[in-house]
Design goal:
This protein has 222 residues and is α+β, with helices and mostly antiparallel strands. It has helices spanning 3-27, 29-36, 41-62, 74-81, 86-95, 104-112, 135-139; strands spanning 67-69, 125-133, 145-152, 155-163, 182-187, 191-196, 208-209. The chain has seven helices and seven strands; from the N terminus they run αααβαααβαβββββ.
Length: 222
Amino acid sequence: MSDFAKRLDAARFAVAEACHVCRKVQERLASVRSMLKDDKSPVTVADFASQAVVARTLAERLGSVNLVAEEDADELRAQIASGNTAYAEAVLEGVRAAWPNATLDEVLEAIDLGGADPATDDFHGFWTLDPIDGTTGFLRGEQYAVSLAWIEAGSPVIGVVGCPNLSADFSRPFDDPDPHGCIYLAAAGEGVYETPADDVEAHQVKITRLETAESEPVRMCE
């Protein structure tokens, strides 16, 4: 398998794992809100958990990775040091949906893998991640996305967008979460592909190439 194919498959797998984690956190919004006493806390928990899973999966499948992502673990470490472990425990529970044996230290280290800086670090290509794209949709139990891209020489080469609640049937109302969700994969010069978000393992994946007319562009998750 070429380096390009390895990156694409690793990105698909990482986003599928993150979709599973985010769906589990979203299912528990009421209990997480009750635990954390903050309406915005559940999406922060999902952000941390999603980033940890994506970072760990990329590193596990590709070796050393350069990842630019939204979160760092400093806030969690500060809260743990002050005796407030609720956030960290909620993040760890979310991560364990995809990484059952994860320890808190491992999760914090994985989150911090997202701290690369393309402006100062010396590397040719890097991953960039938005672990929860669409906070309002997430908190409403509706649409949101996990967005991951590989940037090379300043240009996006691979893009993977996971929409855990989006149906492949666009006649289905967007406020009616789909039980499978969708992942869209795009690669420079290779087209756009769609696969169910809950088919994680490679041997289970059904990937469909999307053929669209100019008047009917591919509809991505908003």
